[in-house]
């Protein structure tokens, strides 16, 4: 896997992936940014949330659970001093479907956290990780 990060101006950069997709990253105005894109650390959390969400949805579909939606809400705390690494990360999954089996949802979240999500497992080596879920009944 290869990506490329190209300087645009000030503290604004364009990230390009082998998949031909691009994203703008920018720093906060306090450090000379113009707030044109996400911060790199936000993107790191989004990547973890995306990776975990793919796992949860895929596992539930393979388990023949009637899932209609999945939202991962990620919260994190960072160290006060540089390097301001993540110290705590919590992923809360809101899973919607018809008569979802709570045991199956719990299993999907656990399998993602402990076995499948490379991003979550990697971040867990540096930060305290936790996961939770709730089920919402589809209308």
Automatic annotation (TrEMBL):
Pfam families with a match to the protein in the record: OsmC
SUPFAM superfamilies hit by this protein: OsmC-like
Domain of life: Bacteria
Family matches, as InterPro entries: KH_dom-like_a/b, OsmC/Ohr_fam, OsmC/Ohrsf
Protein name: Protein YhfA
Organism in which the protein naturally occurs: Candidatus Methylopumilus turicensis
